[in-house]
Specification:
Elements (H helix, E strand, L loop, with lengths): L1 H11 L25 E4 L7 H8 L3 E4 L4 H8 L2 H6 L4 E2 L4 H14 L20
Parallel strand pairs: 1-2, 2-3
Length: 127
């Protein structure tokens, strides 16, 4: 299962992250998003309900989707983001895109850096 791989990965990171499993096609309750500061959405979605819930909870939301019609719907959530003092970054893309944002964040943690290598590992979840 994917959640088991996520747990193993977090263990390798000395539990600096906590894996959770959500079904974004179903209603997400407030308690399910407790202690979450950032969501990086890498799934194509059919509606904006999950993104809206994240923004209502003040969670920063990054979406790599490239679907124009879906992005138009996400853009309509801007008033919710403003009201809850949070941010949504849309149509970031994976690589380049999300990888660049993450690399920049890591680089800012150091006084000096000569090189930063980016490796992308992808898999398909099998049920």
């Amino acid at each position: 299962m994917v959640i088991e791989k996520a747990k193993q990965f977090c263990t390798q990171l000395n539990n600096m992250a906590t894996p959770i499993q959500l079904d974004v096609t179903k209603k997400i309750e407030r308690h399910q998003l407790a202690n979450i500061a950032l969501v990086i959405m890498c799934l194509e979605q059919e509606n904006t309900k999950f993104a809206e819930r994240c923004l209502e909870e003040g969670i920063k939301y990054i979406d790599i989707s490239a679907s124009y019609s879906f992005l138009q719907k996400l853009e309509l959530l801007n008033p919710i983001a403003v009201q809850h003092n949070t941010t949504a970054i849309l149509s970031v893309g994976l690589a380049p895109g999300l990888t660049n944002l993450m690399a920049m964040h890591v680089a800012q943690q150091f006084f000096s850096m000569e090189k930063l290598h980016i490796i992308i590992e992808m898999s398909v979840a099998k049920e």
